Amino acid sequence: MGKGMITKICCIGAGYVGGPTMTVIAQKCPDIKVTVVDLNAERILAWNDENTDNIPIYEPGLSSIVAEARDRNLFFSTEVDKAIDEAQIIFISVNTPTKTYGNGKGMAADLKYIELCARQIARVAKDDKIVVEKSTLPVRTAEAIKNILDSTGNGVQFQILSNPEFLAEGTAVQDLLNPDRILIGGDNSVEGRKAIQSLFDIYANWVSPEKILTTNVWSSELSKLTANAFLAQRISSVNAMSEICEKTGANVNEVAKAIGMDSRIGPKFLKASVGFGGSCFQKDILNLVYIAKAYGLDSVANYWEQVIIMNNHQKRRFSNNIVQTLYNTVADKKIAFLGWSFKKDTNDTRESAAIYVADDLINEQAKIAVFDPKVSRKKVLSDLDFLETRSVKANADSIISLNDPYLSCENAHAIAVLTEWDEFIQYDWQKIYNSMQKPAFVFDGRNILNKIELEKIGFKYYGIGLI
Questions:
Q1: Contact between residue 443 and residue 318 where contact means Cβ atoms under 8 Å apart
Q2: % of the chain surpassing 90 pLDDT
Q3: Are 330 and 359 within 8 A, CB to CB?
């Protein structure tokens, strides 16, 4: 397939990766029909909502691009078979959660959905297809997909490419429009190189060719896991230093700035916080750990596992600090949470630190009032129910207000800042102070508020890595 030959692509999975990625491809390649399919009819209905502000994923800039491309060359549908049949390139962008059962439980990726996808493609395809792994997957998954596709016996030729996403939620649209790099892994055969070229040409519509790297499939798959592991490691490293800072009187912001000015280290991902969340960091490191253990590389596995251990410690330390500071009891005390999503500018709550801090505090019988600009009460409760620590009723009884930040803080003993939403900085903190129980505590899990100003008002302020 040479340049300009691709006219129809489809993506299986309309989530945080598939939706935004396909939307940008559709905008940048108006001659290609892009169909995003998902079995979740409710999700597809939301993507097709007349008001694009109601699409299921909140990302700055996304709704206007959907409005431009939808029904022109971007389509959202539940007709999976039809889309597979029509497409020349099929992106697989389904969920790959960590296994909750059996061998590799709590560590290995659950490839159930990927395999179902491959079997569906194998069943439906009547002509040659390029199949692209877009989900974050453990190394050598492409091999499994290829085995399933090649054993269908209906004479169709499949090329498997690995094209991992490097999107950061909250900036996904910018990351897609101006990527640091695009990675395409494929076979070094004539057919493999042709398939790579087809995908290369699509991205070359808006990405300069020197930013599009082509590798073998395994390197591409492993590069994705490695990138996330390195980023998460930086966060755990600075969080480990934050605890030392609190004990010694150093200021973690000053330390981070000093080391970030070293060109070998650089300033990014050195922000001390209550801990990292999101769907990728933990999952990808656990994948690395599992791969290492599978090959008997125990020292490598132990090394990467420490990143997760440190992150869990940081979340637990934050909730313990709240309990200890509030005179060793939070029973029946109202604690206001500002933020529930795992970071600002997204409504994604997967692995958010807020869930785990809330879980600890509810176990201590606190009453939590959550306010997040983009996350509903229903989502907060489902996140807590998912942990299966308590009954659904116990969770519902412990979460008391959600629609207004000032109401959430009224009569609270303490405020915990769990997400770095910009609007939190702008609030009328004097008004909040006046409405709270005294002494009024602020636990800033993101170090975004002005300690000096808040202490002037009368708050007792606790940041991360600060005294």
A1: yes
A2: 86
A3: no
The DSSP H or E segment spanning 118 is: helix 112-124
Q: Report which of 339, 225, 342 is spatially closest to residue 277, judged by C-alpha positions.
A: 342
Strand order in the sheet with 367-371: 367-371, 334-338, 414-417, 441-444, 460-462
Which of 165, 169, 221, 351 is catalytic? The answer is 165
How far apart CA 243 and CA 465 sit, in angstroms, is 6
Which residue is catalytic, options 134, 224, 333, 343? 224
Model confidence, pTM: 0.89
pLDDT at 50 over 90: yes
Tell me how far apart the alpha carbons of residues 36 and 14 are, in angstroms, rounded to a whole number.
Answer: 6
Angle at 194 between CA 190 and CA 197, to 5 degrees: 140
Give the integer Cα–Cα distance in Å for 66 and 54. 11
Summarize pLDDT for 246-266 with one digit per residue, the tens: 999 999 999 999 999 999 999
- The string of pLDDT tens digits covering residues 268-326 is 999 999 999 998 999 999 989 988 998 999 999 999 999 999 999 999 999 999 999 99
Q: Which of 280, 367, 379, 410 is flagged as catalytic? A: 280
End-to-end CA distance of the chain, in Å? Answer: 62
Pair 246, 467: CB distance under 8 Å: yes
Q: What is the chain's mean pLDDT, rounded? A: 94
Distance (Å, whole) CA 173 – CA 179: 10
DSSP structural state of residue 99: P
Is 280 annotated in the active site? Answer: yes
- Positions of E strands within 81-128: 89-92
Report CA torsion sign: 380, 382, 388, 390: positive
Pairing of strands 367-371, 334-338: parallel
Side chain identity at residue 296, one-letter code:
G
The 3-state DSSP class for residue 302 equals helix
